[in-house]
Amino acid sequence: MAAHLLQNYYETVAVILFSIGFTTLLLHRNMIKKIIGLNIMDTAVYLFLASKGYIEGRMAPIVTGGIQDMEAYINPIPAGLVLTGIVVSVSVTAVMLALTIRLYRRYGSLDIDEITMKARKEEN
Amino acid sequence: MDVIRNFPFIGIFFCMSSGVVNSVLPGKWAKKVSITAVTLNLVLSAAVLYYVIVTDQSYVYVMGHHPAPWGNEIRFGILEGIFATFFCMIMLLSVLGGIRRLEEDISEKRSNLFYVMVNLVMAAILALVYTNDLFTGYVFVEIMTIGACGLIVVRGESRSLVASVKYMIMSLIGSGLILISLSLIYDLTGHLLMSNIQEAIAQLVESGSYMEPLATAIALLSVGIAIKSALFPFHSWLPDTYTYATSTSSAILSSLISKAYIFLLIKVYYRVIGIQVIFQNKILHLLFAFGIAGMIMGSISAIRQNDLKRMIAYSSVAQIGYIYMGIGMGTTIGMLAAVFHMMSHSASKSMMFISASGLSSVSGRSCRFTRLRGAAHRNKLAGFAFLIGSFAMIGIPTTAGFISKVYFAQAAVQSPSNVKMIITIIALGISTILNAVYFMRAIIVIYSPVQEQGNHAKRKDTLMTAVLICFIVFNFALGLYSDIVVDYMRAGLAMFS
CA B377, CA B374: separation in Å to the nearest integer? Predict the structure, then answer.
């Protein structure tokens, strides 16, 4: 078991990073750290995809000087998926940061629990 | 006739691009553009529905003429047609019905941004309904998340800001789980198109290899979508969001966005993983258990609320529980009941949010029960619509809610597992009683006689009147002619696999 984990260390690291990011996003009280957690979580997925898309000894499917054997190239789709994913996570991060700025201006705090309490108190 | 095959793509593209244009238009024009786009989509999807019903088969639309394993595809059959048409109609009615309230809630200068979000969400919903490509599905899930966040926050009040942040956090956790599960599925199968993945998964199951990663991927995807559609233990974001958003946004969030996610889940189960594989999977037991818990706990929380919108929000938690219970039964008829309940719930829930806004606008813009006393006498039609909606939620005959409960009970009786049958029937009984308790209380409050004739001279909201009449007619039609709808849904589900 442990040997398998060591052998596939990219995937192992990706899963560990994913869980770190996931827990930070879910449980941390500070908004900025939540956003960092979100980014760690997404990056873990990209690491996973990139490691799956890489085969040692093969090259990117850019044809120069005639097409070689099929075995000489890697599948470019995982890299494409990573790029799409990066675009998505950048835009989501931007939205989250914008919301955080507005929250900070309104409540003067980045602590989500404190903000919720303040908002409740204002209502009553 | 063949030109109709282009309609799904044209609809999505038009919605998306007019949304971009809306961001530079003044609010009055953006409203017109947005309503035109939704109406056009309604017409286009109705044409698609007519086409697939007449020809009785499903079609694959190849984008950019790249053939199957490489290109991107749109697929439409009867079920897609039904839901695309239905979602467009509910979207149109929700936007029109809440327009007056919207103009009070959002300043004229920023109101075009609301319509940008409406267009984005509409395009994302249609894309999720039609797409045949998993990664496209993921991208549109994210677009819908951002659009939904915009719909909540556009009101500009501080409470809706906090609610939208909470929504975003939970939603992003769901997206993360969906993304990693899609990566796993891609690694296992090497495909992104749903039909190719299904073939590859069938081979994997046959050879019995990679079963653990496959089960993990299915579990992660199911939980991710369950978080996004507010299944019971993950519903913490829902009450605040629905309460503090403007009424149109609440209607769109509860009856379109969460339903589109569930539609995607059902689609993935049928088209990607294969229905026979998923019926053997243990994740369905989990969804079943969460669904049952949601039915009971959502209703119990709803009883404790003293705010009408909040009560309707908690009732949504219970109704989402019904849908997941149907999916979790692990039979075709349970799936059918879940699909029908998706439709009946979203028809009545959007009506209730619009009528709640009508009731609160004659009660000093408050949804507190103390202020709403006798509101149905001040706004008779909104009160009546709320009454019909409550009947549908409780499951009084002639409403669609009754029909879906009948189907759930039938599915329970025909379920292969005795435990699930007993639990389902008991839970249906308890949850019906609980629903009756809190909706009856709300109805008694809004219909209680009042002496003073206070702010009676309100501006007449003819648009809302027309929309509520449409909603009432539609709800009754869905209840009375449910046989036809269910027959088509059955055909659509058969076409799915």
Answer: 6
Contacts of A78 (CB under 8 A, 6+ apart): A49, A50, A52, A53, B186
Tell me: ipTM over 0.85: yes
Tokens 């029937």 found at: B425
Residues A31-73: tens digit of each pLDDT:
999 999 999 999 999 999 998 888 888 888 888 777 777 778 8
CB count in 10 Å sphere of residue B224 = 26
At CB < 8 Å, which residues of chain A contact B? 18, 21-22, 25-26, 31, 34, 38, 41-42, 44-45, 48-49, 52, 75, 77-78, 81, 84-85, 88, 91-92, 95-96, 99-100, 102-103, 106-107, 112, 115-116, 119, 122-123
Indicate the residue of A38, A48, A103 with minimum beta-carbon distance to B172. A38
Which chain A positions have a beta carbon within 8 Å of B165's beta carbon?
31, 96, 99-100, 103, 112
Q: Is B453 left (phi over 0), alpha (psi -120 to 50) or beta?
A: beta
pLDDT at A7: 84
Mention the CATH class of domain A2-55+69-123.
mainly alpha
Question: Is pLDDT at B98 greater than 90 in this prediction?
Answer: no
Asked if A115 lies within 8 A of B192 by C-beta distance, the reply is: no
- Check CB contact under 8 Å for A84 and B172: no
B199-236 pLDDT, tens per residue?
Answer: 999 999 999 888 888 999 999 999 999 999 989 888 88
| Nearest CA-CA partner of B314 in B255, B240, B239 | B239
pLDDT digits (tens, 9 = 90+) for B19-39: 899 889 888 888 899 999 999
d(CA B476, CA B388) in angstroms, rounded, equals 9
pLDDT of B457 above 60: no
Task: Return the residue of A nearest to B192 by Cα.
Answer: A77
- Distance of residue A5 Cα from the nearest chain B Cα, in angstroms: 14
CA B196 to chain centre: 28
Substitution target in A13, A23, A33, A95 with the highest count of B β-carbons within 10 Å is: A95
Sorted by where each begins, the domain ranges of chain A are: 2-55+69-123
